Amino acid sequence: MVTLEPEPLLRLRALVRNRRTPPQVTSLPGGLVVRAKGRGLETADLRAFAYGDDPRHIDRNATARTGQPQIRTFHAERDSTTLLVADFRPSMLWGTRRTLRSIAAAEALSVIGWQAIHTGGRVGLIAVTGGETVYQAAAGRDRGMVAVIGAMVQAHARALGHAADPDPPLSDALARARRVAPRGAQVALATALDHPGEEFADRVAALQRRTALSVIRIADAFETEAPRGVFRYQTADGRAGAAPAHALAPEDPAGLITATYRTHLAPDAQEHQLHG
User: Helix/strand/coil (H, E, C) string of the chain?
Assistant: First the structure.
């Protein structure tokens, strides 16, 4: 599977709902339990306006002070935000069994996103490619996750058009996540950790001071179940050599990996790794 299609990601909603995780609830006087509704009145954050944000939430006073559009985001007291960060860079656009690593990343993030929606939260997206980075502002309910999936599909299609380009540093996506994620948000990054960038550790530390970061490592079967022997390789920048297959897998530079999602296994066979 090379092209990312929306239907398989939409079907993962049923996989999450079958877990029967209790939705986020609040109580009205008299003990009546209901789902939390609305965007809430408590300020979640004040940050620079980003493409995809609702212009109705621009703060005029902050915009006048800074000279740049500033957006004020809100949440209910019990609301939570999950920001999905999809690595669709050129190094992710390959796979030896079932699907590409990039598509596996979209699957893993979709499971996490549907779980966040199911428990009453909001979900947004940053998708980094060899070209343009795609951003989808966080929103709640099923339509919020449908918008995230649509943005992932569009971003992956653009990524395929940049398959021959060099990888931009992964650290750039973390810097973008820090700018748009509200304080206290959950940030889920799905990546193989190729070419993290010289500033990766610093950007991770800065993001962790503001949010709860989890990293889902996407692993191809050739990396985790490779046949024995030495294999020749050539990188995108022209470097060639030979190495055992297990030595080709990137390391975890900051000890961040919380789960491993394998490209050759179906989502329902590894969903438990993402939520325990």
Answer: CCCCCHHHHHHHHHHHHCCCCCCCEEEECCCEEEECCCCCCEEEEEEECCCCCCHHHECHHHHHHHCCCEEEEEECCCCCEEEEEEEECHHHCCCCCCCCHHHHHHHHHHHHHHHHHHCCCEEEEEEEECCCCEEEEEEEHHHHHHHHHHHHHHHHHHHHCCCCCCCCCHHHHHHHHHHHCCCCCEEEEEECCCCCCCCHHHHHHHHHCCCEEEEEEEECHHHHCCCCCEEEEECCCCCEEEEEHHHHCCCCCCCCEEEEEECCCCHHHCHHHHHC
Band the pLDDT of 250: cuts 50, 70, 90.
low
**pLDDT for 32:** 35
Task: List, for residues 183-216, the tens digit of each pLDDT value.
Answer: 999 999 999 998 888 899 999 999 999 999 999 9
Give the residues across from 259 on adjacent strands: 216
Name the nearest CA neighbour of 127 among 97, 150, 156, 90. 156
